[in-house]
Write a structure and sequence with these properties.
The complex is a heterodimer of chains A (312) and B (324).
Chain A (H helix, E strand, L loop, with lengths): L2 H16 L4 E2 L7 E2 L3 H20 L12 H10 L12 E6 L2 E2 L4 E8 L6 E8 L7 E4 L2 E2 L31 H13 L14 H14 L4 E9 L4 E4 L5 E15 L4 E2 L6 H5 L4 E2 L1 E14 L7 E12 L1
Antiparallel strand pairs in A: 2-4, 3-5, 5-6, 6-7, 6-8, 9-11, 10-11, 11-14, 12-13, 14-15
Chain B lengths: L1 H30 L4 E8 L6 E4 L6 E2 L2 E7 L5 E8 H8 L4 E8 L3 E7 L15 E8 L1 E7 L5 E7 L9 E7 L3 H23 L22 E4 L5 E4 L8 E2 L2 H14 L6 E4 L21 E4 L5 E4 L21
Parallel strand pairs in B: 2-6, 14-15
Antiparallel strand pairs in B: 1-11, 2-10, 4-9, 4-11, 5-8, 5-10, 6-7, 12-13, 12-15, 16-17
Helix pairs in contact in B: 1-3
Classes of the chains: A alpha+beta (312), B alpha+beta (324).
């Protein structure tokens, strides 16, 4: 071999070896990926284990280990109905993991059951370094639904959006949820110029409202509210997917001597076997996945998971 | 000009190589054969339950760190390294000593942070430590610092505290001695390359034959006498001679050989000249003639040269059916 080749081989080889020499990081800011992608399977395995154990013993008590917030409330209420909770085979198909500078950490996953009949967009959150991962949002989407692409950021395949960040969008995630709640609260005839699109969830809620209003001898009213937004994720087109928990209160004023009753097998029946006599409130929680498009597009719900959580 | 630039580049490469080699040697000397430096034990005066490095205090990446923490009377103690986000969240409400800066081998600045006397959870129950160990009276860890912000935490387990804490640390580069040697070799290689460049060995155009040896070009001055014989002369004796170029002397030499003319002495640069191969010549390559006699049946019979006088020799270009 000619000397020039020997020297070049030596230089290349030793330079590559020298690349592994220790160095100082330029970036002193602390941050971390919410979870390593390999760890998501373990989170789901633990969730299935605990949830199915709860189903097997027909008690919602273990659920607090793996669920929190309105997901826990809705599932706990479902356990009040015989056959209301069934074993789950949910596992993550796609995962979106943002990077965070502080707790709480969270990640999003599109999960489906083994038979493909159920598909959900879920959020697992870890509130502090001493807490475990718990399911905090679980809106259901139709099996054939196509979610928008998400924006990656550095080594993270997703980018969290602050609730008050309205860059590139007509509304910030929090403002979008507030606007959607305003649309739900408005009478259908007054909701013509709001920013919410006329999606299936909005239509379903308006139908339910109209049905309750038609009850004889009942004065019906409805109120909507929302939890502060905690989880929003940037889409590649500059919009955002926003997870919101909506609270709905159906209030009944029933004429004396009459009552509002519910069919067997419903949570309302399980929580109020005698029905609503005099006055009462049925409280619902609805977890919705809201799409806030870039620019001035209409916000709309892509999926929802909800149910009765209390009858007072 | 071009040659000057090459020479400057060659010198620069040589100097750079020497410097790199010195750095490599320095690494080898500092780290020693085990590739690390050990310091301690160093006492850290505290009666809190935690000692932790502040965000940004640990900035190195790729450094091999071995840490031994010791507490008296076999108190349970825990030492771990985790992402700074995790460690800060874990100890944010706990009274602690924060190491705000560190300089090798052991110069630290600390500050006391008030908080709860107890930890929010047992450190051994957490799953996010990059590396950790708990023990009675002491614990040690070993890791290569990753490319992410990390903090080191020493935590008292249970209801004890860290009074009497001593820390011994070794740091270095995994395989540091070998890497130093590698850097030194790299420098030596560069320097050698520079030397080769200065000697112009590498400026020559590549030969067509890959295996051909390099032949050093030497200027030789010769004087050709009247018999065409060359005599080498010293360059100092060049005065008084007419200098002709290479082609002239070669052609002139041939002309002299042909016509035998007596020319004045010439001085020329001697270059290798292609010479005919030994034994080569047109006559040597002529085939031996073969003589044949053709009988009445047209069959050819080879005849030796000593028998030729018995036959009439016919030329080759006669018709085949004619006598030969």
């Amino acid at each position: 071999m000619r000397p020039v080749r020997v020297v070049m081989a030596l230089v290349v080889g030793l330079t590559l070896a020298a690349c592994a020499i220790p160095h100082q990081r330029d970036d002193t800011g602390a941050s971390k990926l919410a979870i390593e992608e390999a760890g998501v399977d373990a989170v789901y395995a633990r969730y299935r284990e605990v949830y199915n154990a709860a189903v097997d013993i027909d008690s919602a008590q273990p659920l607090s280990v793996v669920e929190r917030g309105s997901v826990l409330d809705i599932d706990t209420a479902a356990f009040q109905v015989e056959g209301g909770a069934v074993r789950t085979t949910l596992r993550a198909d796609e995962v979106a993991i943002p990077r965070f500078k502080a707790y709480p950490l969270w990640f999003m996953a599109v999960a489906s059951t083994e038979d493909g009949a159920e598909r959900r967009v879920q959020v697992f959150s870890r509130m502090s370094s001493v807490d475990t991962w718990t399911l905090v949002a679980s809106p259901r989407i139709v099996a054939e639904a196509t979610l928008p692409k998400l924006r990656a950021s550095g080594d993270a395949n997703a980018l969290a959006v602050a609730p008050d960040d309205d860059r590139g969008m007509v509304l910030s995630p929090q403002a979008a949820v507030d606007a959607y709640v305003a649309s739900l609260s408005a009478l259908p005839e007054a909701a013509g110029d709001d920013v919410a699109g006329d999606d299936a969830f909005l239509q379903q809620m308006r139908d339910a409202f109209a049905q309750n209003q038609q009850l004889a001898d009942v004065e019906f009213s409805q109120a909507w509210g929302a939890d502060p937004v905690e989880h929003a994720i940037r889409t590649s087109d500059g919009g955002a997917l926003v997870f919101a928990t909506l609270h709905r209160a159906d209030q009944f004023q029933v004429t004396p001597g009459r009552s509002v009753t519910y069919p067997d097998g419903t949570v309302q029946r399980a929580l109020a076997p005698e029905g609503i006599v005099g006055s009462g409130t049925v409280r619902f929680d609805h977890q919705v996945l809201l799409l806030v498009p870039p620019g001035n597009g209409e916000i709309r719900v892509l999926g929802q998971f909800g149910g009765v959580v209390a009858v007072e | 000009m071009r040659a000057m630039r090459r020479r400057i580049g060659a010198w620069a490469l040589t100097v750079l190589g020497v410097l790199v080699a010195l750095v490599g040697l320095a690494v080898m000397v500092v780290l020693g054969p085990d590739g690390r430096v050990t310091t301690g034990p160093h006492a850290i005066d505290t009666d809190t339950a935690a000692v932790v490095t502040a965000p940004g205090a640990v900035r190195f990446v790729g450094v091999q760190v071995d840490l031994l923490v010791e507490v008296p009377i076999d108190k349970p103690v825990f030492v771990g390294v985790g992402n700074t986000v995790d460690v800060q969240d874990y100890l944010q409400d706990t009274a602690r000593v924060e190491i705000t800066s560190y300089a090798a081998p052991w110069t630290i600045q600390t500050r006391d942070v008030e908080g709860e006397p107890n930890l929010p959870s047992a450190p051994t129950a957490l799953d996010w430590w990059v590396v950790s160990q708990a023990g009675l009276g002491g614990a040690d860890i070993s890791l290569t610092l990753p490319d992410e912000p990390v903090s080191v935490a020493v935590v008292a387990v249970g209801s004890t505290n860290l009074s009497g804490l001593e820390v011994t640390m070794a740091y270095g580069i995994r395989g540091g001695f070998g890497r130093g040697a590698g850097i030194a070799l790299l420098g030596i290689g560069l320097a050698w390359f520079g030397v080769l460049l200065r000697r112009r060995h590498l400026w020559r155009e590549p030969d067509h034959d890959e295996d051909a040896e390099f032949v050093e070009e030497v200027e030789v001055f010769v004087y050709v006498d009247e018999h065409g014989v060359e005599h080498e002369i010293d360059p100092a004796e060049l005065e008084g001679f007419e200098i002709v170029d290479e082609e002239e002397i070669l052609e002139g030499a041939e002309a002299e050989a042909d016509d035998g003319a007596d020319e004045a002495a010439d001085v020329a640069v001697d270059e290798p000249v292609d010479e005919p191969a030994p034994g080569g010549g047109a006559s040597a390559e002529l085939p031996r003639p073969v003589y044949v006699w053709i009988d009445d049946d047209g069959v050819e019979h080879e005849v030796g040269e000593d028998e030729l006088h018995e036959f009439e020799i016919a030329p080759d270009d006669e018709p085949e059916d004619g006598p030969r």
